[in-house]
Request: fold
Amino acid sequence: MAQGVLVFAEQVDGNFRKIAYEAVSEGRRLADTLGDTVSAVVFGSGVEGIAGELAQYGADKIFVGDDPALADYTTDAYTNMLFEVVKDNDPRILLFGASSRGKDLSARLAARLGVGLAMDCIALKLDGEKLIATRPMYGGKVLAEVALEGVPQMSAIRPNVMEIVQSPKAGDLEKVAIKTDVVKTRVVEKRLEVASKIDLTEADVIVSGGRGMGGPDFGAIEQLAEVLGGTVGASRSAVDEGWRPHSDQVGQTGKVVSPNLYIACGISGAIQHLAGMGSSKYIVAINKDPEAPIFKKADYGIVEDLFKAVPAIMAELKKLKG
Amino acid sequence: MDIVVLLKQVPDTETLIQIAGDKASIRTEDVKWVINPYDEFAVEEALRIKEKHAGKVIILSMGPERAVESIRTALAMGADEGVLIDDPATQGSDALGTAKVLAAALKDTGYDLVIAGQRAVDDDGYQVPAAVAELLGIAQVSMVVKEEITDGKIRCECTIEGGIMVLETDLPALFTTQRGINEPRYASLPGIMKAKKKPLIKKTLADLKVDPSEVGEAQAKCRVKSLSFPPERSPGRIIDGETVEAKAAQLVKLLKEEAKVI
Reply:
């Protein structure tokens, strides 16, 4: 009979992504409820040294696939390898982080296994042994509770939502055989932006600008984001105007984000934007129009011209930090 | 080159979503149905590939009769043919069920390249394209913002966290679109007129030789039990103050002492 919780732990260039710790922690929580064990899976090149880190978050066992062929993520190599690990270990639950690679991998593997997959979940719970997942639909306008059929029950969890919990376990490493099989895609090049830039989906603080920015100069909010250790986002209007790249867009047709703090500057709050950032823990809105819909979603609102309010907030933050 | 676009009709993103009486689906009255925005990018990209390399653009959709309107819109943009799989047995299919039907339809139409939106903005599932690629045994490339086809190969720039990954694969292959790949054209008036005469074929599961017992609600492995609205945010507080400086000071104090986020 299927048992154990298996967690795919994503690493890039020898560093675990934060979502890997979130997923292993969540796997531990589910396993504790079931009285079961947690195994993590790590694929990459030269990752044997970091694999043990996952023990901190509750991995009883860590499967390591370490080979140059796994250095960069490819759908085929990772799916083929993970399929074998699943077949050999027959887990009852299989978790992923819903990052771009996590989505690509989990969707392909679910189809190969012929089982259900709940994508981009914000909460998981157990009804007896059945996994029940909560996931946003319609860009976050609605939350769905979904039940899964088949073994393993698969879920990919949304980054930045579930808690990272330290819960040290043995974390015994076990090497898995390298059988990448036919890999149909070749990685030609990897172009990473400034390494310090945190992706919107993983950021703790986001400062976003909208039409109220009036032009492509986002200097004011870039500085605010920097002081707060955050990332700059944008509304659809700002992206459509060509002021910011598409990758900065927050909303139903952009990125769905859930930071601790979301500061919306000069954003009126169109329904599709609100859907994309509504699950932020705290929302601050700065807009000179007191009737802007964004104020209904904001924990704190400042009715002011953002070009006056943002520097004033910066000055206060500087006082605070001495 | 045969380019097939997987298209889904979804509620417009400006639609106010209401939960239906069964608490597990949405009310479809008063919904404005549109082409899934990511699929619109797929249609546009298919047309650009056709303009460059010649070939045929086929729009493939599974859904009820109303989806005809969205297929016609894609035909008016310039696609050549439409195929709608309209069969009551497909209702309630999950991603895998849907992918089985679409994969069967793709085998039926033939394809060199399949393009789909990275996700549909209704169920936000992100799964059907990958499942279709798996069932067809072809490569999938996700979240593409740029592509180039040469000598039977496609090279794609894909967005990943923090940057771009450039991947190459042989055709046939499937890729999914990410915002930024293009600006979809509007259908022109002559385009709309021409679209009325373009072939739009309706098919059933029987036509595709798909066993109805393999798809639909009864076979769904991922099933929505209930829908609810996200918890309402507590009513916001507008920060009062004589000056912008006073307001800023009050905000920073609240963020530090009440919210504890800075």
Remarks:
- Chain A touches chain B through 99 residues (CB under 8 Å).
- The mean pLDDT of chain A is 95.
- The longest helix of chain A spans residues 18-34.
